[in-house]
Amino acid sequence: MTAHRIAVIAGDGIGQEVMPAGIACVDAVAAVHGLDLRWQHFDWGSDHFRRHGRMLPVDGLDVLGRHDAIFLGAVGVPDIPDAETLWGLLIPIRREFEQYVNLRPVASLPGVPGPLRAGHDIDLVIVRENNEGEYSEIGGRMFRGLAEEIAIQENVFTRRGIERVARFAAELAGRRRGHLTSATKSNGVIHTMPFWDQVVQEVAGCHPGLTLRSELIDALAASLVLHPDRYDVIVASNLFGDILSDLAGAVTGSIGAAPSANLNPERRHPSMFEPVHGSAPDIAGQGIANPIGQIWSGALMLGQLGHEAAAAHLVAAFRSVLADGVRTADLGGQASTTQLAEAVVAKVDALAGQYAPGALPTS
């Protein structure tokens, strides 16, 4: 039996509700595929910050580094600035463990109406550069509170950083439909974006058969709303990828179903898997949060750990449940978080014959 140590940080808000749902579904599929998942829970997040003045303990990154993966719920609360929660937990994890790819698959969900007119069959992946770009620590503020107060923020784009994320995106597109779109703003940002364009084009040129299209971010955002079915793989900088992935997730019907993976592709360090939706304090504690983003993130985790059949099994299970009409309120249904998760667990068992070890998936 294959064993993996997984660090669990449920975090804040609805993270506390979708995390048990996600673990239950991952455990169900792990049982079918003979996987031994050893979950270790850490009560890190905003409550930890209130008690200790920091989101992680001093040795937190060392502790996480001894695991095979990190399963995150959500962080963020109204009474603590986002800069504290983001820079105190998420960004240190992403950078310490060289999780330079933020992978965000976007797909139409069975029976879930999106906000767009009918006829779009959405199946794309956004590959976001996750370690540099616009999310830089370089800069500062001067003359606070005075009329001449200023703030300066520097973007950082390195050849190595662009090359490695572009290479990942190009290889992924090569395994899919062969179309790569690069998000840029080189008509207005005169140094970093032309550099981005140049390096992405160089990398794409090393992949015969790949079609590369560079699109300005404003036009690309509009096109994702009008023609989302045209896209296959989109590679983008840290900020552009962050915005586009939320937009694309909403186009499918709910950001509550959107997953993400913060990947160290070389597997020298653990990767981190989290839903996109955030802590949603407005609905926390009501039992209505959509667990699909957490469950789907669990499937991405299984795939990164080398268990592609188990990952496909779990995705097929939650898609089948949605097709059956079991959905939370954000998807137009009435199921609770727990009810939806229980339905997915039952569907995992129902589909076990198709996805059991040695069986070829039939859907």
Description:
With about 375 residues, the protein is an alpha/beta fold. About 40% of the residues lie in helices and about 20% in strands. The protein contains twelve helices and twelve strands. It has helices at about 15-35, 45-50, 60-65, 80-95, 160-175, 190-205, 215-225, 240-250, 290-305, 310-325, 335-350, 350-355, and strands at about 1-10, 35-40, 70-75, 100-105, 125-130, 140, 150-155, 180-185, 210-215, 235, 260-265, 270-275.
Give a short summary of the structure.
Helices cover 40% and strands 20% of the residues.
Name the descriptors.
12 helices, alpha/beta, two-stranded antiparallel ribbon, Isopropylmalate Dehydrogenase
Please specify the SSE layout and strand pairing.
Layout: E1 2-11, H1 15-33, E2 35-41, H2 46-52, H3 60-64, E3 69-74, H4 82-96, E4 101-107, E5 123-129, E6 139-142, E7 150-153, H5 159-175, E8 179-184, H6 192-204, E9 211-216, H7 217-226, E10 233-236, H8 238-251, E11 259-263, E12 271-275, H9 292-304, H10 308-323, H11 337-350, H12 352-355
Parallel strand pairs: 1-2, 1-3, 3-12, 5-10, 8-9, 8-10
Antiparallel strand pairs: 4-5, 4-11, 6-7, 11-12
Helix pairs in contact: 1-9, 1-10, 1-11, 5-6, 7-8, 9-10, 10-11
Q: Would you give the CATH topology of the largest domain?
A: Isopropylmalate Dehydrogenase
Number of domains: 2
Going across the major beta sheet, what is the strand order?
2-1-3-12-11-4-5-10-8-9
Number of strands: 12
The CATH architecture of the largest domain can be given as: 3-Layer(aba) Sandwich
Report the biggest beta sheet as strand number plus sense, adding barrel if it closes. Answer: 10 strands, mixed
